[in-house]
Amino acid sequence: MFQMFGFGGVKCPRCAHKSDDQSGYCKHCGLTLGAPRSEPVLRDNRWVPGDDELAVYFGVSALTGIFTKTLRVPATTRAYILQADKATEVPQGEYEIEGFFTRLNHLLRNQNAEILITRSAALPVEFSFDDLHTAEHLKVSARFTVAIKIENVAAFARHFMTVPGVVSIGAPAGGGIRGQPLDARHGRQRRPARATGRTPAERPETAPGLLRPGGGAGGNGRAAPR
Predict the structure, then answer these.
(1) How far is residue 71's CA from residue 81's CA, in Å, rounded to a whole number?
(2) Which of 30, 58, 135, 194 could form a disulfide linkage to 65, CB 3.0–4.6 angstroms apart?
């Protein structure tokens, strides 16, 4: 799903090997260059998003390249492997290489793959609106929380996983609105978009229908005069 283009002289975020490989993968460990620098994911092989992260995604030149050490998928995580536009969920647990490919025997161990690591529970995103006024000129404030999780993995992959990256809670919004909007950050060495018939400028940075509120009604809020 990721398109691999030249990253001459780039250091791998996992093994720090400097690579001139035009494929876009590290020649030493097979990780996609420009992958997000997540210590638990890349160094400890514990697939878990950060506290403020909705999703982490990267690729490997061969699926066996995920086994730098024992793979751990904790209960707080939902993890997926994408090959040939098909997503396979990795059950929670601990895996050694042979047990992994015995359990998920339809996966191709020597083929490239993309990894999506997201959360089992929804990510709460809080918003606060101050200095609001009613029609009666009363000052009010409003606070609400929206719980967000990934439901459609295939659609998320099409819109977001064109380069390795992470979706996390961004910086607070300005203009009197204190919030934590979601922010999609990609590797510093950006690649052209996949061949979809659209240029990067035409490709939407976010797809509102993909990230759906969790927790029933999609959040809660309150407004109170002051």
Answers:
(1) 13
(2) 30
Other CB atoms within a 10 A radius of the CB of residue 199 amount to 9
Cα 56 to Cα 10, 78, 114, 202, 203, distances in angstroms = 20, 11, 11, 24, 20
- Residue for token pair 């998928």: 73
The two tokens of residue 50 are 């950060």
Consecutive H or E run containing 80: strand 77-83
- Which residue in the block uniquely carries the two structure tokens 């029609």? 135
Please compute, for residue 217, the number of CA atoms within 13 A of its CA located in the half-sphere on the CB side. Answer: 5
Q: Within 10 Å of residue 45's Cβ, how many Cβ atoms?
A: 18
Neighbours of 96 (CB within 10 A): 12
Here the tokens at position 161 are 């996983």
* Domain extent listing, the chain: 1-121+155-175+183-204
Rounded to a whole number of angstroms, the CA Rg of the chain reads 20
98 or 199: whose pLDDT is higher?
Answer: 98
pTM across the whole model: 0.73
Task: Mark out the alpha helices in 61-167 (DSSP H runs).
Answer: 97-103, 153-160
pLDDT for the residue numbered 186: 63
Query: Is residue 187 pLDDT above 50, yes or no?
Result: yes
In sequence order, the β-bridge partners of residue 58 are: 115
Q: How far apart are CA 4 and CA 33, in angstroms?
A: 9
Report pLDDT digits (tens) over 5-35: 334 568 899 999 887 767 789 989 999 988 9
